[in-house]
């Protein structure tokens, strides 16, 4: 069904292009698809603007949900994502008196007793909290995260109100399937509102990824942390999507993109414990003056997704199939993850590539500007099917889709999207994850040795291919190719 719909859409687009090209006197406004498309875009824009106004008026949980929708760049129409993205910079700010009140209630002391200095203007404000720079009495510089005082009390009421609103909207528009938003908010908000949980997540991921020397996670000061106040080591740097900052500081954009890919591939495929809010404000980069190495600083550990083993294995195998363009396995594992007959659309949503690119192999060529426009345009055309998919896939998939889109946004800003190295890193992690799983399910020493040998050979093949790509793009590689070409011509 979905395959037929995608083919029809592609055929319609191709036919439209030929017809317009062949008739130079045709006014595009006379063409039905153009008029309908413009009308749909206008409706989406008006709806998005009203949704943004509602989020700004109700603040708190509504802004959090609006930010979530604004992050789904390749899943929702651009009118929604572009309009809702401003909520990241329009989060509410608590007053100095409100900040003092929360700190007094939770830590039992006044700000002047706890800190030698405390900056009134927050470093950043989010939907649930804001962060201030401060200096402790012993001279340590810290970041103080303080929850907005009314968020706890309002969150449960906001979720109930959202649920009622969505039920009403669904009665009017049956294709509007966004109840998953309420389900996710019910599950995740209590965790995000507990800053002690955030502190534990930060320590867990720091330990889990301790072998990545480029990763920095702020240390938590537990003696001055509560459910509404979190004290962390102060770390600063440029936002991960700021190319100008990286150029000024001599940071290699490709290295940052590659390391960010390694980081998230390890979290998703190997550990199944995933930081789900890689918004550029939560991922900073900084060059270490001593070593000259570029560090990635990961902030805001309130929202993590824990993947079950069965889900993680199916997701690993699906990505392996997508990278190899093995369409039978793409269909098999997409269906196992709840996509049903909409598996072609699901593959396009996961990769943010056209169905043609998925069939050809997503590592064969980077995303072109025209393909990117096509994908974003199709988000509006297939909105009912997309919302149906989001309602049908396992809940674990929802935050992963948001994470994927945020990472793609960073790659697009850095101009490193869909590079071969990112797929090679994903392949390595998938191979390791599947091999570890297979060994855990086999008691035979011979079978375990077989699995380990297959794993080593597969990883060796990837390393060899990576070396080939490096040589191909290097001066040495160009010199070797030129020499071989010269030798070939001289012998003839």
Structural write-up:
The chain has 492 residues and is α+β, with helices and mostly antiparallel strands. The chain has 21 helices and 11 strands. Strands 1, 2, 3, 4 and 6 form a 5-stranded antiparallel beta sheet that branches. The longest helix is centred in the C-terminal third of the chain and has 29 residues. It is globular. The chain starts with a helix and ends with a helix.
Low-confidence stretches: 1-40
- What's the story with the biggest beta sheet? 5 strands, antiparallel
Number of strands: 11
- Tally of helical segments: 21
Features:
492 residues; 4-stranded mixed beta sheet; 21 helices; globular; disordered N terminus; 5-stranded antiparallel beta sheet; alpha+beta; single chain
Note the topology.
Layout lengths: L1 H21 L9 H27 L1 H11 L7 H7 L11 H12 L3 H4 E4 L5 E2 L3 E8 L4 E7 L3 H22 L6 H14 L2 H14 L6 E2 L12 E5 L4 E2 L3 H6 L4 H19 L1 E3 L7 E5 L6 E5 L5 E3 L2 H16 L2 H10 L6 H9 L3 H6 L8 H13 L1 H10 L2 H20 L5 H21 L4 H29 L1 H17 L1
Parallel strand pairs: 5-10
Antiparallel strand pairs: 1-3, 2-3, 3-4, 4-6, 7-9, 8-11, 9-10
Helix pairs in contact: 2-3, 2-4, 3-4, 7-8, 11-18, 11-19, 12-13, 12-19, 13-14, 19-20, 20-21
In brief, what are we looking at here?
Helix content is 63%, strand content 9%. It has 492 residues and is of the alpha+beta class. Strands 1, 2, 3, 4 and 6 form a five-stranded antiparallel sheet that branches.
